[in-house]
Design goal:
alpha/beta; Rossmann fold; Serine Threonine Protein Phosphatase 5, Tetratricopeptide repeat; hydrolase; TPR repeat; TPR-like_helical_dom_sf; signal; TPR_rpt
């Protein structure tokens, strides 16, 4: 309930994180008409000139745009969701949504204007957005009832143009509940599939949605990330505000910073390879979502905690190299080296590392005062050890250099 309230608050309060919205018109040869679209650019788009962003295409853009932007704004605020480019297609101004989603009753494939709209999205809209904006390879699509069913058609292609599908209470044409699971089983690329219904949803739609879920749950495809939900107490229309954040958090679960649960259940229990886990986590972001990101400071701290907890101190060397790559001007890399030397008993090198860190830029909760205190504390320990060694060493008796004369009479005196 709290999540729903926050989402509504974000939607009603407008553009809290300085997202930029552009309303534009595309002249489509496929549709033989102009079609209005709304483009939502991420807050950092104008500042971060090298960053590319995942693309989210919204059918029913007239009413889904603000709802998705609200959920995304909330996720951006907590760094739980990546920034994305949202493109919403207008389909309600002239009641286009029904004709845009025309199916052939025999084949279940798009027909008439539905076929034209299908090609408009893949051959005109997406290429235009890619040409004019910095779009990452990862693409998502979302819709409600009629449009939710239509977006499934993109799964029928051998190489689908979308990587993630958000199908909210789809009004499935005949046979689609069997065809979609078959296509999900055949996917060769990483695919996210989310669909849902509600307790108060339309019965004729709900029955077939549940049939699709029953078949999809039997799909054994490691490339598929699948989630189905049925919302208690929700209606056909209110389910949208439940589904949007749930779907986004499913798709971008790997993006989120390392949580307490992830640390305890996936990282701390490893016998080794804590730094590798961190590297792999961000490699998945780049390979699956097209996001090349700087590793978060808090994620470095999580791996540091795992190394200390499991006394795998040698991994600080590898963590230091990773820190130097991500934050070359900061004290983070030398701080980790200092920890390794300190924990393995190489006090002199630990002191030197902390002193080097002192000369670098502060980062996170690491400060110059902290580095100085650590170095001074180790110097004190080193001094105490030397004094203890001196005190524990027993004094030695001096050996005379000249041998004193013997008091025993010589043979010569005896003879006298």
């Amino acid at each position: 309930m709290r999540q729903l309230f926050l989402l509504l608050l974000l939607v009603s309060s407008g553009n809290l994180l300085a997202q930029r919205t552009i309303t534009d018109t595309i002249t489509s040869q496929k549709l033989n008409e102009d079609r209005e679209i709304k483009i939502g650019l991420p807050p950092s788009y104008d500042k971060n000139k090298s960053q590319k962003y995942p693309l989210l295409v919204l059918f029913d853009g007239d009413f889904l745009f603000d709802a998705f932007q609200g959920a995304l704004s909330y996720g951006y605020y907590w760094d739980d969701l990546p920034e994305v480019i949202v493109v919403a297609i207008s389909q309600n101004k002239n009641n286009e949504r029904e004709s845009d989603c025309t199916f052939d009753e025999t084949t279940g494939l798009p027909s008439e204007k539905g076929a034209d709209f299908f090609e408009f999205v893949g051959m005109e809209l997406i290429p235009s957005i890619q040409k004019n904006f910095r779009v990452a390879p990862f693409r998502m699509v979302a819709g409600l009832d009629t449009t939710a069913a239509f977006l499934n058609c993109y799964l029928y292609k051998d190489q689908p143009i979308f990587n993630a599908y958000i199908s909210m209470s789809p009004e499935l044409p005949e046979g689609m509940e069997e065809q979609i699971p078959e296509r999900l089983a055949a996917m060769q690329q990483t695919t996210f599939y989310y669909h849902c219904t509600a307790e108060g949803d339309m019965k004729k739609m709900k029955t077939r949605i549940q049939a699709l879920d029953a078949a999809a749950k039997n799909v054994k495809n490691p490339k598929l990330n699948y989630l189905y939900e049925e919302f208690k107490g929700a209606s056909h229309y209110s389910l949208v505000l439940h589904a949007i954040p749930s779907a986004l958090y499913q798709i971008f679960s790997v993006y989120q910073p390392i949580s307490t649960v992830e640390f305890q259940e996936k990282i701390a229990v490893l016998p080794s390879g804590y730094v590798k886990y961190l590297v792999d986590k961000y490699a998945v972001l780049e390979n699956s979502l097209g996001l090349k990101l700087q590793i978060r400071i808090n994620d470095f701290k999580a791996i540091e905690a795992a190394i200390l907890k499991n006394k795998a101190y040698v991994e600080f060397d590898e963590l230091s190299q990773l820190a130097r790559k991500n934050y070359p001007k900061s004290m983070l890399a030398d701080y980790h080296l200092g920890q390794m030397y300190e924990k393995t008993g190489d006090t002199k090198r630990a002191i030197k590392s902390y002193q080097t860190a002192f000369q670098k830029e502060e980062i996170g909760d690491l400060t110059k005062d902290m580095m100085l205190e650590r170095a001074d504390a180790l110097k004190g320990e080193l001094k105490n050890k030397k004094e203890e060694v001196i005190e524990e060493t027993p004094p030695t008796e001096e050996v005379p250099t000249d041998t004193p004369p013997s008091e025993t009479p010589t043979e010569e005196k005896k003879s006298e």
